[in-house]
C-alpha cells in the first residue's frame, strides 16, 4: 500500500510539474507572438527577463556566500544540513579528482623509474663485462700479491706481513719485509 501511495504521489508530482512546464511554454509562445506585433509588449518582456536574470544572479551570489561560510545566520537547521551535505559531496568530488591525478603521476613516475633501472642494469652489465676482462689482464701482469683496483673509491688497507722465505741462491742472507695490499 505504501509503495502504491508513493507511486501515486510521484506520478501526481510529475504530472503537476509537467503541466506547469506546458503552461509556461504556452505563455512564452503567446508572449513571443505578441512581441513581434507590439513594441510595448517587447519592452515589457525584456524588463521581465532582466528581473528574472537579476533574481537568478542574486540567488547565485547568496548561494556562493553560503558555500563560503558567510551569511549563515538566516538559515534553518535543515538548510544548514543541506548546505553541509552539498559541501561534503563537493569535497568528495575534489578528493576523487586529486587522487586520480596523484595516481596517474605515481604510475608515470613508476614507469620512469623502471626505465631508469633497466638502463642502469644494462650499463652495469657493460661496465662489469669490461671490468672482468680488465681484471684478467691485470692479474696476469701483476706479481707479489699486488693488484690494481678498478674502483678508485675503494679504500686501500696496508698491513705488515711475515718475511718472505727466499732462495739462498738469490739472496745473501738479508731478510726482506714486504707490504701487502688487501
UniProtKB/TrEMBL annotation:
One of its GO terms (cellular component) is nucleus. Keywords: Coiled coil. PROSITE patterns: K_BOX. InterPro entries: MADS-box/MEF2_TF, TF_Kbox. It comes from the Eukaryota. Residues 43-133 form the K-box domain. One of its GO terms (molecular function) is DNA-binding transcription factor activity. Residues 43-70 form a coiled coil. The keyword Repressor does not apply. The keyword Coiled coil applies. This is MADS-box transcription factor 23-like isoform X3.
